[in-house]
Design a protein that fits this description.
20 strands; alpha/beta; six-stranded mixed beta sheet; single chain; 371 residues
Length: 371
């Protein structure tokens, strides 16, 4: 029977050898499963947000109770912004990342207008709610109507906007505040706003002093240029906002052309102007847009064309890339209407091309490019 014992011994040794070889394989599978499980539970790093920001701009807005837009609402017995501005515009204003408007009036009560000034605009401070209704993120005060009712109403204007959570630019209790860029951030992009005015032939609106309230002037560009240089150090994208030009004229002044280019040379990425109460032309300088005047948006009862301008800024490359888009409409009878048809949109686009002297072309979607 010795041969039987020999066979059993051989089988036993062979089985043990097989078991020894299989064990490492099972261990490897477990290790792989453990590694896979570990990989699945390790949180992935969140992707960097796209550094793209949309900036909205309109022309002049007036919420004064003694002037046409608010009188229009009063006649209707309405307190709804939708009875003054088309719902399509309100939707667009609220949808952009940062919305700027020109606040061309003062807030206050029980104050008297400046002596000798023909046009003066005063709003009850509660009217600031309409800016909130529009989705306004920043208001420009460097214009020729923020001081219409003197220092008391001017300071009330600053306090009213601050109380409504709306930063203002181009005005302040002193020069340090009035001349400072205002930097806002959206989608990881820091945007600086710099605003100044040179709109008055007879000066009623004071320049802010070391210890006195007022606005930033740009009759002489030295202060404006210094503010732009400061903004360039603080922000990714810089917008210069001058209040300038000839009222009710599409003809540009030499000052507008020269200063716009100087602002860009100093570090501005875009120039967006106001004051003329009608649209003026558009140009590009060193690849950067100049919108000389956005005119009125909701300001009076004139029958005029208007636009909301949107700058879509992409900061993902080495240099900012910007798409300029115009949203056309009309102001008529104290109501600002969205252009109702492709024909009307096209009419406004071709008109802007004309007053721009052929410097730009505008496609059917409102995108502006150098001609």
């Amino acid at each position: 029977m010795s041969w039987i014992r020999t066979v059993v011994l051989v089988v036993a040794v062979f089985a043990f050898a097989l078991a020894g070889c299989a064990a490492p394989a099972a261990s490897d599978d477990a290790a792989q499963e453990s590694e896979a499980s570990s990989a699945q539970t390790t949180p992935e790093a969140e992707p960097e947000p796209e550094k793209i920001v949309s900036l909205g701009f309109t022309g002049d807005i007036c919420l004064a109770d003694n002037y046409i837009p608010m009188q229009h609402l009063a006649e209707l017995g309405s307190t709804s912004i939708y009875d003054g501005i088309d719902a399509n515009y309100i939707k667009e204003m609220r949808s952009v990342d940062l919305m700027w408007v020109n606040n061309e009036f003062a807030y206050g009560t029980d104050v008297e207008p400046l002596e000798g000034k023909e046009w003066t605009f005063l709003a009850d401070p509660k009217n600031v709610k309409y800016l909130n209704n529009m989705g306004v993120d920043i208001a420009g005060l460097a214009n020729n109507h923020t001081f219409d009712y003197g220092e008391e109403a001017f300071l009330t204007t600053l306090d009213t906007l601050k109380g409504a959570g709306i930063p203002y630019v181009g005005a302040g209790r002193n020069a340090a505040e009035a001349n400072a860029p205002v930097v806002l951030e959206a989608n990881g992009v820091k945007v600086a706003y710099v605003a100044a005015s040179c709109a008055e032939y007879t000066i009623y609106t004071p320049e802010a002093g070391e210890d006195s309230p007022g606005i930033m002037w740009c009759y002489d560009d030295d202060t404006m240029l210094e503010a732009i240089r400061q903004a360039r150090e603080e922000a990714d994208y810089v917008v210069a906002l001058p209040h300038w030009g000839t009222e009710h004229s599409t003809e540009l002044t030499e000052k507008q052309v020269d200063s716009a280019r100087a602002y860009i040379d100093a570090g501005a990425d875009a120039v967006v102007g106001g004051h003329s109460h009608i649209l003026q032309g558009i140009d590009f300088y060193n690849g950067k847009p100049i919108l000389y005047n956005l005119g009125n948006f909701w300001f009076d009862g004139y029958d005029i064309d208007t636009v909301m301008a949107e700058l879509v800024v992409n900061m993902e490359g080495d240099e900012p890339a910007v798409d300029v888009v115009l949203l056309p409409g009309t102001q008529s009878g104290a109501f600002t209407a969205w252009a109702p048809s492709e024909q009307e949109r096209d009419r406004i686009f071709r008109y802007i091309e004309e007053i721009s002297g052929g410097a730009v072309s505008i496609d059917t979607k409102g995108r502006v490019s150098a001609a």
